[in-house]
User: Which sequence fits this backbone?
């Protein structure tokens, strides 16, 4: 009988060749001290430096290290998604490759899943070494996410250091830039035992950050996407149909009132403009047309949702350490 793997560490990376040897040595030391059975999945998201060469050398030295290389840069969400699908550990831990996440947090994150029974534990970097241009927008988005998701006990949704019960990563899909809101996705997938742990945030030792200010705009749009998809992906008619019905009904009421008023005035021989000569008529006409279009959009969405099988395909160039 094969022995189960305690921990899978999933590490997405992009141009981090300098930090990888030190990070892996640190992880190996933590695992050996705590006698964990483990695997480390290094997901090279289309790096242009020597990261893949370094991964190959690390895999030769330790059979617990595995590597996946994308043909191009797909983003952190794609790297995490493929890492989740390949992981075999009872507990999956994610961390960044830039040494700003401490592997010393792994034992406590593991125990909170196995012993305390949480589905997901998210790190909280209470003391950060980031500039104000990054920390202030981050706090704003975390506040908005708490209000929209109802997960009020998390301070930092986007912390890269997290631990998951195996069932969680096998039942969620992370795409586009949705990695920022994995706790929200997990909750809406039925995993409610979510908490956080205060973790150490270390200053970047090598290289520069890969994220710019545009990520905050994208982050807000992604949050709206998650909210819409989670609520209406399987029942789009509940969204489009309601809006379409309201729009059509409002247009119908206005049109009926205009026609009724025209008939009433004609019966009492009162002069007035024709129905089509009044601006209100064109507003009613627009509402009627939009109502029909929204209703049809909901109907088509229902047909698509009943017949589609969603899946993401990423161009994996090479793999190391996985059984064929």
Assistant:
């Amino acid at each position: 009988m094969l022995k189960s793997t305690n921990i899978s560490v999933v590490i997405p990376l992009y141009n981090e060749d300098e930090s990888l040897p030190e990070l892996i040595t640190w992880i190996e030391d933590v695992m050996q001290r705590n006698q964990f059975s483990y695997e480390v999945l290094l997901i090279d998201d289309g790096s242009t430096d020597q990261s893949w060469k370094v991964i190959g050398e690390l895999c030769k030295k330790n059979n617990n290290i595995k590597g996946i290389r994308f043909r191009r840069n797909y983003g952190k969400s794609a790297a995490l998604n493929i890492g989740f699908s390949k992981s075999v550990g009872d507990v999956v831990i994610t961390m960044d490759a830039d040494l700003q996440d401490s592997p010393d947090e792994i034992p406590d994150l593991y125990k909170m899943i196995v012993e305390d029974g949480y589905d997901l534990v998210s790190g909280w970097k209470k003391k950060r070494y980031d500039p104000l241009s990054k920390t202030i927008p981050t706090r704003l988005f975390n506040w908005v996410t708490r209000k929209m998701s109802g997960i009020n006990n998390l301070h930092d949704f986007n912390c890269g250091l997290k631990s998951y019960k195996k069932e969680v990563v096998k039942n969620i899909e992370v795409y586009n830039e949705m990695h920022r809101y994995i706790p929200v996705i997990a909750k809406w997938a039925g995993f409610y035992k979510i908490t956080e742990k205060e973790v150490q945030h270390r200053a970047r030792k090598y290289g520069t950050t890969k994220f710019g200010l545009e990520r905050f705009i994208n982050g807000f749009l992604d949050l709206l996407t998650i909210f819409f998809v989670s609520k209406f992906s399987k029942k789009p008619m509940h969204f489009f149909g309601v809006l379409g019905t309201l729009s059509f009904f409002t247009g119908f009421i206005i049109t009926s009132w205009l026609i009724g008023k025209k008939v009433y005035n004609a019966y009492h021989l009162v002069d007035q403009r024709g129905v089509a000569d009044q601006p209100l008529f064109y507003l009613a006409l627009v509402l009627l047309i939009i109502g029909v279009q929204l209703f049809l959009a909901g109907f088509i969405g229902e047909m698509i949702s009943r017949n589609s099988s969603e899946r993401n395909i990423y161009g994996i160039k090479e793999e190391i350490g996985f059984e064929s």
